[in-house]
Amino acid sequence: MITLGENEPVKGTNRKRLPSSSLQATERIDVAHRGATLCPPSISRPPVEGKKGGTMSKQDLNGLKPYLQDYATRVLTPSKGGLYNCPICDSGTGPHKTGALGIFDNGTRWKCQACGKGGDIFDLYAAINHCDLAEATRRIIDLYGTPSSAPAPKPAQAPAEPIDTAKIDRFIDSSAALLEGSPGASYLQGRGFTPDFIRGEGLGYSPDEYNKPLKKRLPSIVIPYPGASYYITRPINEKAYDKPKTAEAGPEPLYNAAALYSGAGAVFVVESQLCAISIKQEGGAAVALGNSGKDRLIRQLQDKPTSAALILALDNDERGRKAQSELAAALELLGIPHIQANISGEYKDPNERLQHDAAGLRQAISAAIMEAEKARQAEALEAAAAYQQESAAGYVDQFFNGVTDSVNTPAIPTGFPGLDKLLEGGLYEGLYIIGAISSLGKTTFALQMADQIAEAGHDVIIFSLEMARAELMAKSISRLTFKLTQQRKNAKTTRGITTGKRYAMYSDTELQLIIKAREEYREKISPRVWIREGVGDLGAEQIRAAVERHINLTGRKPVIMIDYLQILAPYDIRATDKQNTDKAVLELKRISRDHKLPVMGISSFNRDNYTAPVNMAAFKESGAIEYSSDVLIGLQYKGMDYQEGEADGARQKRIRKLNKDNDMAAREGRGIEIELKVLKARNGGRGTSDPLTFYPMFNCFIEHPEGFTVIDDEPRRRRP
Fold it and tell me: Which CATH class for the 425-637 domain?
């Protein structure tokens, strides 16, 4: 039986079918797996090594699939109706918060109804972390190990004799020969079947068939499976279906599965084989779930999709209606076309109606087929229209509406005129990343930008994972004391602001400067700045919640600043730093897109780039930073660029002196020349400011009036 785990039945209109795939195996073991839609089965992958260096068995890999529910709860965001937000198409992140990713097949498979992607635990990991299935499999093995704690599977027992389809076929043929004039024939005619139809179906009779559920021999009818060497039996006087031993006939197939691929426009799905036969006699095609339940049908359709519209017509009782509702939900989740129809009328099932109202059953079957055909045609038209809407023509009006709206939503100035010019006016919707080596002022620069944005009348939310709220406020007030006086003599450091015992030693001029800076911060900046502290417990999910709360309570869209990316709370403590950073960057990008606002993240640099010019590869754990950001800004000391003809030794000596001189300048309160490089700008030019002056002691950047000069590429040695 198909279950949706903890999820409620899914409703929706997406009808995309799940492509089939088959298990691909190498001589050792391939990581390909059934139902993979994110990686085509034709792509071969290497065997997967276990923790002790041995090759993972197919059984071990299958044993990891039930961990899907656990992994989903770790990495996915719950949505309405027991579903999840989809990490591929972002369903559930919009204004209605309705996700479309559900888990089914006893918790081993997932499917997004919105985008049609799906698979097992390995596919989900690959989709979230942008890796291939081989890497995903290795990571899942690292997370959960091999299922060694589970009971060891029993070794397969050799059958009493090899499976002999000829033997099964001979029994079916002999039972058909015994049917004529037997009690079995009378029984079947009493169930509404005509003699000609009975003979045509090859139904049979066994006078003393052993019934395992009842543990005795009874006269039974024999129902063969069309197109398969398989059958079931049913005593003529008791309701106790039985089937041959698996060792003799193999596993039970879906009854009349061939009807799904026979070209029939519609195929009924019923519970019992007798109900399927009843529908066939009255002009329809049907498959029966039998004892195998819904799982076998779902697996059949996953492996080999049908072009027929399914008509669900399970038993007309409480149990049947519940099972039909569950099956409909599972088919909906997989995007398999279907309708539901009551062809039994007031009777329990189609066979009972055949016995009492054959004409009514025939009419109900015809009406259901017509309804299914209309639904299929309507769906085809809807799908064609939806696809056409995906063309550029479908977005023309939306595009120009956006252009019109943007007139009323101009860029947000950063307070650095040269940078604003380079960014075509300032900040827009998008993800902005600022990076620099340690102690070069990236937090100070971003904070100053945030304060200048707030002073211009725009809301800013600062998520500080490293510094306390008081420290950031002190840095802002310290900067104001410097900008108000432009003199190092009276300007105050952060410590000079926060250390109260120093105030008794300040002159009246110094005290008045602090008061003036404090009031300017209070009146012009602080009403538009919100500082959220977080250490270890602040992640993308909490940032999204805070942003949405701000918008709901104020009606205004803020600029977001995160300090800094690499210490955001990991989405998975077992994932690598790069995987967690990549995930955070993608989520911040989604926040920017969903709410159409700027998001600014601060990033550290790799140690290897401390003595090299800034470039995109310098950003620590750079994968998604480089590819997903809209604007990448790097800060470096002026003079870090390569010089034409300079030997490595000479360069290293020059850089050491540059660092030493800048350290001395910082300690003395003097300015340091800084270059700001725009390494990536999705909608603007790339360039460099030449230069900014940074006063570390007073937490202040001063932009040079000459502003920016355009560069045409990076990184490269400077031309003569």
Answer: alpha beta
